[in-house]
Write a structure and sequence with these properties.
alpha/beta; Polyamine oxidase-like protein; binds flavin-adenine dinucleotide; disordered N terminus; 36% helix; single chain; 15 helices; six-stranded mixed beta sheet; polyamine oxidase activity; 23 strands; five-stranded parallel beta sheet
């Protein structure tokens, strides 16, 4: 047979063709739904493990809640912009290091409360007077004591309550911790930043669970050139279909059938569902048979918060040379936060970041009104501020591709919801930030869930094929190459 094929090129071609065909028939296949960091990480891993992979993404762009915009002529992130955990243990560190992407560290602290070091705090009252640094530091320390006291409340109460309720119990018990005047407003600002971390208001954040996520060492670093290069690198060579909004996922014992908006269908051995929690909550993707009750309950019970960015581009810098400008107020709702991108990138840009109810209210405005609103907050502290020359407004809460910014624990719901969201259902695997038990609401957490779902899927599919040793493990050489991170503080 072999010698015959050598002597007859036509027959040899035919054999090769049928070999390829057979190989392709045998090659396990997976559909990845959602082209955010989690979906792309899963697709990359399975592609590298010789699976046939197709990734279906509803938008006309990749990245999801990683969205680097270049319309100002330089990169600005409308979604994620920090690497939380600037250290080699961060699962994204090898890739960021290899790409030589610089990071600007805003904080060396590993807490969820401080994404900026205390010395870079520049807070102002509504009249534009800067709050003395000593007061900012003292109130910061008082805030930590209050949180320690809330821990005692947590131990005593069998039922979960909100962070806000816990604060008022602490103030009833420890009147000495109550602050007045300017100090009270600074405290509200700290609360406002805490709400920003969860993208939710203090009256909805769970006292039992607020500090359950893990924090990597190394503090918080801004991706100076934006997050998109990470997405683009991971996506290289993958069969990606943009503008493919999935509407239905049918699972059978021998595979899955996925339907997109225009009626086109895709079949494969398994699927990885990496759409946001907000999209799952909205039930715009139908599952057949329906998802088990425990999965549906987890989708319903886990919270999804809103944080937005209003990015203001000015002709030149007219603000103080600090990492951020904060406006303190009587309530956390009234406080403001402007990230000074000029510090990290050299471009004259301020990013206003409302969260929770304020973010929801700002989303009801037109882009122009939202940009004006942000500018008015700035005018309160810098009356001579010149008008922005350009602006961009994000709408993560109402965008049908996200329907929220990131997940958080709401009052009275168990912390194991993240795990329940992750657990596969037959040949459906789940990935995305809301399935990350250790690092929910983050890019590196979402990335890890993609890699993990890919590994679970690979094992499951290959067990069925009975060919476990034929394919490479999903974590290939990339993970082992270590290049140090480029970290700066200008
Ligand atoms: C304003 C903001 C600031 C943030 N800041 C930070 C930060 O500084 N650092 C950090 O670590 N994290 C941050 N995060 C969180 C981080 O961005 C997310 O945790 C992470 O990007 C989520 O990735 P994902 O893959 O789980 O989801 P996504 O990125 O949302 O990906 C899901 C994908 O599914 C697609 N999709 C939706 N519906 C369908 C459908 N029916 N069919 C097909 N595709 C569909 C979406 O278009 C999207 O591309 C921030 C988020 C926001 C919104």
């Amino acid at each position: 047979m072999e010698s015959r094929s050598k002597s007859n090129p036509q027959l040899r071609r035919a054999l090769c063709y049928s070999d390829v065909n057979r190989q392709q028939e045998r090659s396990p296949s997976v559909i990845v739904i959602g082209g955010g960091i989690a979906g792309i990480a899963a697709a990359r891993a399975l592609h590298d493990a010789s699976f046939q992979v197709v990734l279906l993404e509803s938008r006309e762009r990749l990245g999801g809640r990683v969205h680097t915009d270049y319309s100002f002529g330089f990169p600005v992130d409308l979604g994620a912009s920090w690497l939380h955990g600037v250290c080699k243990e961060n699962p994204l560190a090898p890739l960021i290091g290899r790409l030589g992407l610089p990071l600007y560290r805003t904080s060396g602290d590993n807490s969820v409360l401080y994404d900026h070091d205390l010395e870079s705090y520049a807070l102002f009252d509504m009249d534009g007077n800067q709050v003395p640094q000593e007061l900012v530091t003292n109130v910061g320390e008082a805030f930590e004591v209050i949180l320690q006291e809330t821990d005692k409340v947590r131990q005593e109460f069998s039922e979960d309550i909100s962070i806000l309720r816990a604060f008022s119990i602490v103030f009833e018990r420890r009147p000495d911790l109550r602050l007045d005047g300017l100090a009270h407003k600074v405290l509200q600002w700290y609360l406002c930043r805490m709400e920003g971390w969860f993208a939710a208001d203090a009256e909805t954040i769970s006292l039992k669970c607020w500090d359950q996520e893990e924090l990597l060492p190394g503090g918080h670093g801004l991706m100076v050139r934006g997050y998109l290069p990470v997405i683009n690198t991971l996506a290289k060579g993958i069969d990606i279909r943009l503008g493919h909004r999935v509407t239905k996922i049918v699972r059978r014992y021998n595979g899955v059938k996925v339907t997109v908006e225009n009626g086109k269908t895709f079949v494969a051995d398994a699927a990885i569902v990496a759409v946001p929690l907000g999209v799952l909550k909205a039930k715009t993707v139908k599952f057949e048979p329906k998802l088990p009750d425990w999965k549906e309950a987890a989708i319903a019970d886990l919270g999804v918060g809103i944080e937005n960015k209003i990015i203001l581009h000015f002709e030149k810098v007219f603000w103080p040379n600090v990492e951020f400008l904060g406006v303190v107020a009587e309530t956390s709702y009234g406080c403001s936060y402007f990230l000074n991108l000029h510090k990290a990138t050299g471009y004259p840009v301020l990013v206003y970041m409302p969260a929770g109810q304020l973010a929801r209210d700002v989303e009801k405005m037109s882009d122009e009104a939202a940009a004006n609103f942000a500018f008015l907050q700035l005018k309160k502290i810098l009356p001579d501020a010149s008008n922005p020359i350009q602006y961009i407004v994000s709408r993560w809460g109402t965008d049908i591709n996200s329907l929220g910014s990131y997940s958080y624990d709401t009052v009275g719901k168990p912390h194991d919801l993240y795990e329940r969201l992750r657990v596969p259902v037959d040949n459906l695997f789940f990935a995305g930030e809301a399935t990350s038990v250790s690092y929910p609401g983050s890019v590196h957490g979402a990335y890890s869930t993609g890699v993990m779902a890919a590994e679970d899927c690979r094992m499951r599919v290959l067990e069925r094929y009975g060919e476990l040793d034929l394919f490479q493990p999903v974590m290939g050489e990339e993970a082992s190459v270590s290049v140090p991170l480029l970290i700066s503080r200008l």
